[in-house]
Amino acid sequence: MPTEIAHYNGLYGDDKAQVSHTYIYSQLIGQRNRTTTWGLKPHLHGNLYQLFFLEAGQATLDVDADSVPLRTPCVVLIPSNTVHAFTFSAQVRGRSLTVADALLDTILQVSPAILIELNSVYVLSDFTEEESFVELLSLERAIHAEMHSQLPEKQLALNGYFKLLFVKLFRLLKHQQNKAKGSSNRNLHYFHEFQKSVARAAPFEKKISQYAQELNITAVHLNRICQAVKGRSALEIVNANTIRRAHNHLVYTSSSISEIAYTLQFADSSYFTRFFRKHTGLSPVAYRARAYHDEKQNQKPAA
């Protein structure tokens, strides 16, 4: 087991790459002949933003402790420093696009709203006539072709393609958010913003009243929204996020319990153990042992 969550400077499996501030890489998904499911193990990129354009086939995205079935066609956005994994069916088809954070910052500096809004994991599958999947995929292919060309002012052309791509993704996201607002009297919108704020914050960094203040609502109102949308209180949702982070360290690293407690900002390992057992029914040590046992069982060949 690794000592920490797999962290790559380049693409998956490449921890020695020297990524420049103009790094771009485009590739096919499912280009090899396959007869069984396959995938990418949990990992993160500290300096790369990734987009997956899935045209057909079945796939599952694992983010933290959540497993999300993907309905194709769809576009999956994975910001840097996000632990993620994929399982693909043999029939999956699509493309992936990887770009350096520094390049995106440069390209989109005139529109910080896009940078902020798209700096979370999203699965976009509700397309519009103006922002169709076909058009988004066409832009990815145009970027791929431009990358491999030797035409003058290539970087300028690439910057233009990226600006158009991210504007369209931003519009598509706003379209989905507007539909959500209209169907639930803003409850889903508030809940979505609350989730993003929880994901950005360090564990125990904010009180529920502070999250509510960010949304310009009361803590009571925030709790009612959380109960309506998820059947949980706001505090339960914050605690669940902390458990997901603990899950990542326990399952994907060999860090000690004390080291994990320190990383998650618990006062000490005893408090972390009590907190974790309260919410999972297992101590961190027992949870890790069970996860390791399950992984070994899954690796056994079928009879």
Poorly predicted regions: none
Shape: globular
Tell me the structural class: alpha+beta
- SSE string: EEEEEEEEEHHEHHHHHHHHH
C-alpha end-to-end distance: 26 Å
Largest sheet: 5 strands, mixed
* Strands in their spatial order, largest beta sheet: 1-3-8-5-6
Mean pLDDT: 87
Say what oligomer this is: single chain
Beta strands, count: 10
Topology record:
Elements: E1 7-8, E2 24-29, E3 38-45, E4 48-56, E5 59-63, E6 66-70, E7 74-78, E8 84-88, E9 93-100, H1 101-107, H2 112-117, E10 122-124, H3 133-147, H4 154-184, H5 187-200, H6 208-214, H7 219-230, H8 234-252, H9 257-263, H10 269-280, H11 284-299
Parallel strand pairs: 1-3
Antiparallel strand pairs: 2-9, 3-8, 4-7, 4-9, 5-6, 5-8, 7-10
